[in-house]
Design a protein that fits this description.
Elements lengths: L1 H18 L4 E8 L3 H19 L3 E8 L1 H9 L6 E3 L3 H9 L12 H4 L2 E10 L19 E4 L5 H15 L6 H13 L4 E2 L2 H9 L6 E5 H11 L4 E4 L4 E5 L2 E3 L1 H7 L2 H9 L4 H9 L3 E2 L2 H6 L9 E2 L1 H5 L2 H8 L5 H7 L2
Helix pairs in contact: 2-12, 3-4, 6-7
């Protein structure tokens, strides 16, 4: 009898496991600090899709520096969708034929469901009295940031500082490059991604200031407590977008186009926009943005199109081999 009971138990568990297998599996390859956003979003979408289509969907996640992620997709990582923090990362996949050329027109708002800004995280009491970008170039300052060549977070930081320098009296590309050289000289290391930069600043206690997305400040508060740091908004900062796209060859191969399309579209739903706001990302929905206005203080921003003529031009001028970053870093 015990042997029969064990066999029946095993059979029951096997049937239960089979019953709970997902009808469809999607892989979302994303940037480093998006973990919390999609950890909350995925169950919402799964519930929505089950109710709408009667299918259960398993959503797998992959997170790392954005450039590293798109290169992995180009090398064969079978992402159904990519959710990044720089449009030129999506363009990279479009150039490889993995994403359609007009990907930015496939969804609303230039295929970016929410935005953010770059802010300074400083130690409690702001002991170095950091108020704006010029303070980061001071003697004895230590700046923690992700690598500008490999991460969207790092590039947004670099471009924000460059734009601020351009806007100063007598500002020019030459003065901006000289300013960035001083800031980068104060970076003791470059983190592998935004979350790694946060760990370096908060856990390893390195640096006087961490430059990161506005949304990352809330993650830091949840994990480390609000009493250990302060958020400083510089006088000018970049409005960052988070473009999304379907990886054509993968969804056609797996037969998951319908589900992948729905997964990304749902980011613009009321629920998806609420989730963005609750994760301190600025929603596109005006009504929800107003509802959460207390999360998002007014800040003077610029877009990459306004200052640099677009993400591709900015990438070519500053982050391709031989660009301004290399010129600065080689002489650092």
């Amino acid at each position: 009898m015990p042997r029969i009971r064990k066999s029946l138990t095993a059979l029951f568990l096997s049937l239960l496991a089979s019953a709970t297998l997902a009808d469809v599996t999607l892989l979302n390859v994303s940037y480093d600090v998006a973990r919390d956003v999609y950890k909350d979003y995925n169950p919402m979408f799964q519930k929505h899709w089950k109710q709408k289509a009667g299918e259960s969907v398993e959503v797998k996640q992959s997170h790392a520096g954005s450039t590293k992620q798109v290169r992995a997709v180009a090398d064969g990582l079978e992402a159904d969708v990519v959710t990044m923090n720089q449009s030129n990362d999506i363009e990279f996949l479009a150039d490889k034929g993995l994403v359609v050329k007009d990907w930015a027109k496939k969804f609303a708002n230039n295929a970016s469901p929410y935005t953010s800004t770059m802010v300074f995280i400083v130690r409690k009491g702001n002991p170095k009295a950091i108020k704006d970008w010029n303070d980061l170039a001071g003697t004895g300052m230590q700046v923690i940031m992700p690598h500008p060549k490999n991460t969207g977070n790092g590039r947004n930081t670099y471009l924000s500082a460059w734009a601020w320098a351009l806007k100063q009296p007598a500002g020019s590309d030459k003065s901006a490059q000289e300013f960035l050289a001083k800031v980068l000289k104060n970076a003791p290391l470059f983190a592998a991604g935004g979350r790694d930069a946060t760990t370096t600043f908060m856990q390893r206690k390195m640096g006087d200031v961490l430059i990161t997305f506005e949304s990352e400040a809330e993650m830091i508060a949840k994990e480390f407590g609000k009493g250990d740091f302060e958020v400083v908004y510089p006088s000018l900062t970049m409005q960052t977008e988070f473009p999304v796209a379907i990886v054509e060859k993968v969804v056609d191969k797996k037969g998951t186009r319908k589900q992948a399309q729905a997964y990304l579209e749902y980011l613009w739903s009321k629920e998806g926009q609420e989730n963005a706001a609750q994760n301190y990302l600025r929603p596109r929905d005006a009504e929800i943005l107003k509802k959460y206005a207390h999360f998002f203080p007014p800040v003077k921003t610029f877009t990459v199109d306004e200052v640099f003529g677009g993400a591709n031009k900015a990438f070519a001028a500053h982050f391709k081999d031989g660009g301004s970053f290399d010129q600065i870093y080689q002489s650092k």
